[in-house]
Structure formats: C-alpha cells, structure tokens
Amino acid sequence: MSAQAPAGITGAPGRLRRALTVGCLIAAAGMPSGSSAADSPAPTTLRLLQMNLCNSGRASCYTGQSVTRAAEVISAERPDLVTLNEICQDDVTALESTFAAVHRGGTVVSAFQAAGDRPSGADTRCRNGQSYGIGVLARLTAPGARHTVHSGIHPTQDLTDPEERSWLCVHVDGALSVCTTHLAATSSTVALAQCDHLLDEILPVIHRSSGYAPTVLSGDLNLRRGGDADVRSCGPPGDLRIDDGAVQHVLASGGVSLCCTRSVDIGGATDHPGLLATLTIGGRRTTRR
Fold first, then answer.
1. Residue 80 near residue 26 (C-beta atoms within 8 A)
2. Which segment of the chain is annotated as a signal peptide (predicted)?
3. CA angle 135-221-156, nearest 5°?
C-alpha cells in the first residue's frame, strides 16, 4: 500500500520538529495490535543496518560485487531493519530473499523508491535498465501487523544534477516508522534543505494520515557533522543521532534510543562501510557508542 506526501505542503520550519521521530520501520511490529510505545510492557530492541551499495553501474565506485557482499553482511549480522541507498530495483528483491532466510518463519516487508530523472521525466536508471533508488527491508514480529509505504521526490533539487533525490518511509501502525533517503551529493545546501523538508513537512503529514509513531531516519545524507551545512542543524531539538564519521547517519526521536554503533566492512565492494546501530523503542533515551 503506497501513499505519497504532497511535495508542496507548507509549514513553519522547525515548528513541528519536537513532535517528530526520524526514520525507522519496525519496532512496534512486536507489539500487540492496538498498543503503542507508551503502553508497551517492555522496551523493544532492534538492530538497524544502513548500506550505500553504489550499484548503479554508472559511478566510479561500482564493482558489481556490492549486492553479494551485502547479502553476506545481512546473513552474518542478522539485522531487524535494513536501509539501502544507491541500488537497482531488483536488488531489493534479491536482498529480501536473504533477509527472509535470516528471519525464517517471520514476516518481512520491503519497499523501493526510484530517484527521478529530470531530462526524461521518468525514473533514473541503472546501467542494466532497472530503476535506481533507495530501499527498506524490515522484520515484522506481530502477526497481521499493518504497514503503509510513503514515498516521493524531494521538492528541492540541485538543477545542475539530472538525478532527482527521493525519500521512502515504511510506517507500522501504532508502532514505528522507518525512513531512508539519499540526499543531494552536489550541493550541501540543497541536501540540508531536503533534510529539513523531510523532517518539517513530510513526516508530520505521514503522522497525520497514518497515526503518530516513533520514527528513525537512516541513510546517506551527504552532510557532515561540523560541515558548512552541518547535519546537526537538520535534527529536531533533543534528537539523537549517530554517524559513520562521514555522511551516513541515523537520526531518532520520540521514544527511540540509539546504542552501540559500529562500522561494518563491505570488503571494498562499495565506497561506504555499513553502519550498524542498536535501537531501543521505549524506556530511557540514551546515545551510546
């Protein structure tokens, strides 16, 4: 089930950030239907893996081995949530198969959103002809847990870059939302505007349409801590954030704690390490590395 938040929504920047959580997918999947993070009997702990696979076939970092290596990492690390950047559409299907094998007997879901291509007005394409974009994999532990997919193209783009950057969220009713995005690489100012719009405009619309849930945003934001366009200015007050020391980040708020982050070796198959983090839904909020 898919819904796209309107690109032209207006609102005062920062006004709604205190109500937000940015990006994740599954936690309350383990809660009984109708319950919320507030009345959950115990905190829920999940492991999230972020990977940028550079698999378009067009970039200099392409090796043709990143999906194979990503499947090996998923098998070894057994994450509950996976966010994927720079992938081809069929990569989601291939990695979902590995993910389902890891969580045999459980329910897994996947979602994909293509980047736009300004010259053609269609999707950006991988060298193999498939749509190119971002994806999410998630494990749902509650039988019959309902989820919705929300996705779209950021309204602010760098007009010198033909690729139009996209965003993607999977919302589990009453439980958690997981989001990913791959922000502009050619302009940190544009990347920061895209991050602001996702937090200030898109997430409140999702929460109004699907119901509020704690949220985690995980992805290659092409923003750095301490950079000219500082990633810390994107996060809501009180948000928790971890990173890989470069441009991959996990942001969380609204009852999500982040813990125990580490980089995961992708064996030279792509130009980014994996970023693995532990999330706790409910309980005391902390950030520990």
1. yes
2. 1-37
3. 90
Strands (E), the chain: 2-3, 44-52, 81-88, 107-114, 116-117, 122-123, 132-140, 147-153, 163-164, 166-172, 176-181, 215-220, 240-243, 248-253, 256-264, 274-281, 287-288
Strand pairing report for 240-243 and 147-153: unpaired
pTM: 0.85
**Higher per-residue pLDDT: 4 or 234:** 234
How deeply is 64 buried, as exposed, middle or buried, from its count of CB atoms within 10 A (0-12, 13-18, 19+)?
exposed
CA distance 190 to 50: 22
Give dist(CA 244, CA 95) in Å, integer. Answer: 22
Select from 112, 115, 83, 261 the least CA-distant residue to 180. Answer: 83
CATH superfamily of the domain spanning 16-288:
Endonuclease/exonuclease/phosphatase (3.60.10.10)
Tokens of 253: 């708020």
* Closest by CA position to 116, among listed 249, 209, 4, 271: 4
Beta strands 287-288 and 256-264 are: parallel
81, 136 contact by CB (below 8 A): yes
φ, ψ of residue 89 in degrees (nearest 5): -60, -40
Sign (positive or negative) of CA dihedral 110, 272, 153, 16 = positive
Strands 81-88 and 256-264: unpaired
- Cα 137 to chain centroid distance, Å, stands at 10
- Do residues 113 and 151 lie in contact, with contact meaning Cβ atoms separated by under 8 Å? yes
Rounded Cα distance between 31 and 33, Å, is: 6
Residue range 112-152, pLDDT digits in tens: 999 999 999 999 999 999 999 999 999 986 667 789 999 99
